[in-house]
Amino acid sequence: MPTYIGLMKLTHQGSKDIMNAPARIEDAVKLYQKMGGKVIGVYMVMGEYDYITVGECPSDEVMAAFALALSSQGNVKTTTLKAFTAKEIPAIFKLLPKS
Question: What CATH number is given to the structural domain containing 76?
Answer without folding.
Answer: 3.30.70.260
